[in-house]
Amino acid sequence: MNRFKVVAALLLMGAAVGDFVSAAALPAVPDSIGQWAGREGKISPVAVRDVRLEGGFWGPKMRLYKERTIPHSWQYMGYNLRSLHKAAGEVTDGPFNGTWDEANLYKLLETIAHSIGMFPDPELERKVDDIVDLIGRAQRTNGYAHVFIINEGKPEWDPAFLDGSHDGYVLGHMIEAAIEYHANTGKRAFLDIACRAADEACEHFLGPGGVPGFCGHAELEMALVELARATGRPRYVDLARAFVEWRGRGLVKPVSATPRSYFQDLVPLRQQRNLDGHAVRSTFFATGVADLALATGDPDYRLAANRFWDSVTLRRMTITGNTGPRHEHEAFGEDYELPNDGYYESCAACGLADFAQRMFLLEGGADSVDVLERVLYNAVLHGISLDGTNSYYQNPLSDANRVRYNSWVCCPPNLSRTLFQVGRYAFACGDRDAFLNLFVAGTVRLPMGGGWVGLRVDTEYPWEGRVRITVTPGKVPRFAVNLRWPGWCQAATLSINGVRVMPIPRTDRGYIRLERDWHESDVIDFDMDMPVQRIEAHPMIKDCGGKVALQRGPLIYGIEGVDNGGRATPELAALPRFRVEARAQMLGGVRVVVGEDAEGKEFVAVPLYAMANRGKSVQEVWTSQRGWKAGAAWWEGRLYRVAGEGMVKAVAPSPTEADGR
Ligand SMILES: [Zn+2]
Predict the structure, then answer these.
(1) How far is the CA of 380 from the centre of ligand 1 (A)?
(2) Ligand 1 center to residue 330 CA distance, Å?
(3) Distance spanning both ends of the chain, measured CA to CA
């Protein structure tokens, strides 16, 4: 029985919490810190700076976020900078930032750190250096750095306000920004500031006379694990572990009317079945638990992460990868409670993207990356406008005449820091395995086998299913290239140096694993069929009953009034046919789907990520089809599937969609 179980047993025996849940009760951290213990051997993420996204779908977007989104973001940083000046003892007029919003500055600094790794910019770097200097001057001498609390003269980690004060949330984002700034510039000053602040937190919670508790908005947990990895200091994992273990024990008093589930405190971790409560806090919390599973190898964390994963991906996620349908408390609902007019905050999509990446690192399965891809190409990308300067806070799938609002809340810099990590999400490596998870055009260098392996990817994905990979093995001649076979893909061809590979070797983890002696400029061609697919939802999702959604490759399509005479609810023909058309001048260059309704009239559907960019317009993702009824059987392990698959499974052969390639 490990020490946590001893603590839990003592608690069940009626012992007072404060007597036992203390720093002394936390177990020593195992030696595995900093290693990645995936099921099939270690899998490591790549550094953002080792990926160059060029051309294709993402290259221009990275440039847009660098040239438009970052300059636009500065105008919202005034109150954060004024607060830092005030905390540094300078005479400054307000207004100043509140409890949580100073995290926006750190999310922007992380965005910039990624950007500098991709696009060196000495002037921007100097600007950040000045702010880092200011942060250092605002920091208390003991290391504490939440300037709202400093400026208000409130107590650090106020035990009466832990559910709402956001000390940990803000510190978590500072740590992540500092790690990335160090990684991309080699400069240590910011990382040193973050370490001093993290050391203060360790001392406060774990030191002599330490006070058990945790910040009500998760974020610091995953940041601490990353900081341990970046610095080699296991104490940061101790603290992340304490924050996770101390939940569900009544240590944090809610000061408002929020339920304990709001901040994942209803029951201890080992009793938590589902992701509940505030969707952003909850997905960040789950990511922290998965990070702890990776860092410690503790099977309890791995089990918990997998329970949370099943909860969200099999029962609580929209087809677009959004979560958190309830307006009240911005929360998850019951299983299958996924209304089309739900809340669905953009930050929760960012949290799910991170959680999905960690689950891939933990379990090594392509199914985790299917979710990551769904979230990135749909929920996350829909959150930010096509011009990079506007954003959605809420993301309903059914929307009547809403205009995008440009309030600088938490989401915009979270979206930009997430999108700049597409390259990190796209690739991974083990000792002898290179993983191509997302099909992004560009180059990557992967540290493998004591050397470097280079991959060049040429593709127009997600518009086309053709992907060409050119291998540069360096001094690592024998290794495996692992291509993800996407969950949406039902047929594909593969060739190496022009020679067809048949049958395609697929692993039970969802990869095409190609192990051989690779030579300079070897070429892999992977060509996925990319028809328009009609998707049906699990029959327990009430709002999707009798409806279908359109998907092509990883992109979910929706229907907007602006393209369809003010209506967004065509009834599809009983046997619908589709064709795909390239519209270079529309919405920044998209492929639209042209379909036929029951009256024989054509309608146009556009990629969800590009919707709501042309002023007010009704929009729908799910639409009815004449005579259509979703099957009730064969839903095990799935929330969405190609329409009719369940019925066909019983009688075979597999269905053929009307194909408009
Ligand atoms: Zn947000």
Answers:
(1) 11
(2) 10
(3) 58
CA of 345 to the centre of ligand 1 (A): 6
Last residue of a domain, one of 511, 528, 545: 528
The pLDDT tens digits of the residues spanning 310-333 come to 999 999 999 999 999 999 999 999
Distance 360 CA to ligand 1 centre (A): 24
Q: Which two tokens stand for residue 541?
A: 């999702």
Sheet of strand 478-484, all strands in order from the earlier edge strand to the far edge: 44-45, 427-429, 433-436, 478-484, 511-517
Residue type, 473: P
Q: Which domain range does residue 450 map to?
A: 430-528
Are residue 520 and residue 540 in the same domain, yes or no?
A: no
Cα of 274 to ligand 1 centre, how many Å? 21
| Res 18 pLDDT > 70 | no
Based on the domain organization, do 481 and 381 belong to the same domain? no
Distance 391 CA to ligand 1 centre (A): 10
pLDDT of residue 13 exceeding 70: no
String of b and e for 485-512 (b: at least 16 CB within 10 Å)? Answer: bbbbbbebebebeeeeeeeeeeeebbbb
CATH of the domain at 438: 2.60.40
What's the gap in Å between 406 CA and the centre of ligand 1? 12
Q: How far is the CA of 324 from the centre of ligand 1 (A)?
A: 12
Which structure tokens are listed for 276? 């509940």
Examine the pLDDT at 349 and tell me if it is beyond 70.
yes
Ligand 1 center from residue 350 Cα (angstroms): 9
Rounded to an integer, the average pLDDT of 34-46 is 58
CA of 280 to the centre of ligand 1 (A): 8
Q: Does residue 419 carry a pLDDT above 70?
A: yes
Please check the confidence at residue 644 and state whether its pLDDT lies above 70. yes
Count of domains forming the chain: 3
Distance 218 CA to ligand 1 centre (A): 13
Integer Cα distance of 39 and 363 in angstroms: 5
- Spell 387-401 as b/e; 16+ CB within 10 A means b: ebebbbbbbbbbbee
Q: How far is the CA of 408 from the centre of ligand 1 (A)?
A: 9
Rounded to the nearest angstrom, the distance between the alpha carbon of 219 and the centre of ligand 1 is 13
Q: For residues 329 and 631, which has the higher predicted lDDT (pLDDT)?
A: 329
- Tell me which residue has tokens 């089309």: 340
- The CATH number covering residue 143 comes to 1.50.10
In this prediction, residue 477 carries a pLDDT of 84
121 and 216 both lie in a single domain = yes
21: pLDDT confidence band, cut at 50, 70 and 90? very low
Q: Tell whether 97 and 144 lie within a shared domain.
A: yes
Q: In whole angstroms, what is the distance from residue 323 CA to residue 311 CA?
A: 11
Q: Are residues 165 and 128 in the same domain?
A: yes
Is the pLDDT score of 451 beyond 60? Answer: yes
Give the Å distance between the CA of 410 and the centre of ligand 1: 4
What spacing in Å lies between the alpha carbon of 538 and ligand 1's midpoint? 28
| pLDDT at residue 159 is higher than 90 | no
Q: Look at residues 397, 425, 453 and tell me which one is the last residue of a structural domain.
A: 425
**How many angstroms does the Cα of residue 346 sit away from the middle of ligand 1?**
6
- What are the backbone dihedrals phi and psi of residue 458, each rounded to the nearest 5 degrees, phi first? -115, 125
Q: How far is the CA of 204 from the centre of ligand 1 (A)?
A: 28
